[in-house]
Design goal:
The structure holds 2 protein chains of 2 kinds.
Chain A (H helix, E strand, L loop, with lengths): L3 H32 L5 H18 L6 H4 L9 H20 L6 H17 L6 H33 L5 H41 L11 H17 L2 H10 L5 H20 L6 H15 L7 H32 L1 H24 L34
Helix pairs in contact in A: 1-2, 1-4, 1-7, 1-8, 1-9, 1-11, 1-13, 2-7, 2-8, 4-5, 4-12, 4-13, 5-12, 6-10, 6-11, 7-8, 7-10, 10-11, 12-13
Chain B lengths: L6 H29 L6 H4 L16 H26 L3
Helix pairs in contact in B: 1-3
The chains are: A mainly alpha, B mainly alpha.
Chain lengths: ~400, ~90
């Protein structure tokens, strides 16, 4: 089944997912640096974008593992891949709109599991792989990162308690930039590879490349650019929740949080777990609120996030399955083309709706008032601010 | 149960993660403390040109600066190790 139109649509959709993955996750690395003023918002997303680009090229060893360990790749068709991506993208857009830092990896995995089930039944899913590689690490990683961040925060404040606050904050801002850069690098390495794996899977399903082929260079390049561009656009809504909503963050906490995130992500991927960067970063930020005496942790915001995390896999799976059923029902390339148009329309609707309560570099650090978008009085002032994303 | 959770890896991630994730910022804090109350030196990142207020009553001696440099060097080495881990195919 060689079908160029279909393949092109799948690749474009995969790159679109990669792009949403980028802006959805900017906050994981940069939210704390933006919140503490260590970096200006625009500079922060530029650094993060550049490091994501570099990170995507640094390591290419696990590119195909994400899908092969979770579903029976022999049963995967282009329509299945497309529907899975659609599930992932729509869940990413919804959670971004709500300003919830949910896992892009889970959205993708959920979407692919859902579409695979719709296409080939529950037996095509390697449930044990899903549990041991996805669900258990997802439950453990925020806790581990949170504990590390809490201890780190406690130590840092203990050691630096006699410092003049100005000296302390200046010093830790530098440390923060360094540690946040490590998280960006790790993010590029981890997450760009997930999309590379998906595109490679599509190429294998289409017979374009042989079953055990590595990702071709154009795949690596395009994925690197897509995730980096997405990161640069900046998911300001999510950045705001992470940097201002969860905990009020000072520079020492920011450094402790990002160090905990970087250490947890790098060590885990060293042991072959591809963790959700989002879960780790959120756990760390929460931990840093616990570790500092008198810091305010907004547990209601944390609870909302945890709820969204629980729903990420099943909801993305549901959308993926629905997309497959619709595309398959219409049949052939036509079905995928129709669903692609639906996806574009829905994406545009999310974007337009988000403009009404825009979060952008100019208001991302406004006082948290319980909602993602700051109150209406702080509507965009500068004509040059273009980031509702 | 060990089929589902790799306890060995989990243990190692927790311990090494604690050393790197919490220990390094703490070491960084120790370095800053050793330089106290001097302004952050250019050696850290070259971003501060020492324009902090001269309220510093005591300046760190040569020993303090050397010890602080050692702290920052260890932090930088750990970062380099992290990048090495990434490049070597996590």
């Amino acid at each position: 089944m060689h079908d160029t139109t279909l393949l092109v649509l799948v690749v474009v959709t995969a790159l679109a997912f990669d792009f949403t993955n980028g802006f959805h996750d900017t906050g994981n690395a940069m939210a704390t640096s933006i919140a503490t003023g260590a970096l200006r918002p625009r500079v922060a997303v530029a650094i993060s974008g550049a490091l994501n680009l570099v990170g995507a090229f640094l390591s290419l060893s696990v590119a195909a593992t994400i899908a092969s360990g979770l579903v029976d790749t022999k049963l995967v068709t282009l329509t299945v891949v497309f529907s899975g991506l659609m599930g992932g993208i729509l869940w990413n857009l919804l959670t971004w709109f709500l300003g919830i830092p949910s896992s892009s990896s889970h959205a993708l995995i959920g979407g692919v599991i859902g579409s695979t089930m719709a296409a080939a039944g529950g037996d095509a899913v390697k449930w044990k792989g899903v549990f041991s590689k996805v669900i258990i690490p997802a439950a453990m990683s925020p806790i581990i990162a949170g504990v590390i961040a809490a201890i780190g925060t406690y130590l840092v404040y203990l050691i630096s308690r006699n410092l003049v606050q100005r000296t302390r904050d200046q010093g830790f801002r530098i440390g923060q930039i360094g540690s946040a850069s490590m998280v960006s690098l790790a993010h590029g390495t981890n997450d760009a590879q997930k999309t590379m794996g998906i595109i490679t899977l599509a190429l294998i399903a289409n017979g374009t490349v042989s079953a055990h082929a590595k990702a071709p260079f154009w795949v690596i390049l395009s994925c690197a650019i897509a995730i980096s561009a997405g990161t640069y656009i900046g998911g300001w809504r999510v950045i705001r929740t992470l940097g201002k909503g969860l905990v009020e963050i000072e520079a020492p906490q920011g450094m402790a949080a990002e160090s905990a995130s970087a250490a947890t992500i790098l060590l885990s991927s060293h042991f072959g777990y591809s963790l959700s960067t989002t879960h780790v970063a959120t756990g760390s930020i929460l931990g840093t609120g616990i570790g500092k005496k008198g810091a305010q942790v907004r547990w209601s915001v944390a609870g909302r996030m945890a709820t969204a995390w629980l729903f990420t896999l099943p909801m993305a799976a549901l959308v993926g399955a629905g997309a497959y059923a619709a595309a398959h029902g219409i049949g052939g390339s036509g079905g995928v083309i129709v669903m692609f148009v639906v996806l574009v329309i829905l994406g545009a609707l999310f974007y337009l709706r988000s403009r009404r309560t825009a979060v952008h570099p100019g208001n991302v650090n406004e006082e948290w008032s319980g909602s993602v978008a700051p109150s209406r009085s702080q509507e965009p002032v500068a004509a040059g601010t273009r980031g509702a994303a | 149960m060990n089929d589902w959770i790799n306890l060995h890896a989990l243990w190692e991630i927790a311990v090494v993660g604690l050393i790197c994730g919490a220990g390094l910022p703490a070491l960084f804090a120790v370095g800053l403390r050793l330089l106290n109350p001097r302004p952050v030196p250019a050696t850290v990142g070259g971003q501060n040109d020492g324009a902090a207020e001269p309220s510093a009553s005591v300046s760190a001696g040569a020993g303090g600066i050397a010890a602080a440099s050692l702290c920052f060097a260890v932090v930088l080495a750990a970062v380099a190790w992290g990048i090495y881990l990434i490049v070597n195919g996590s």
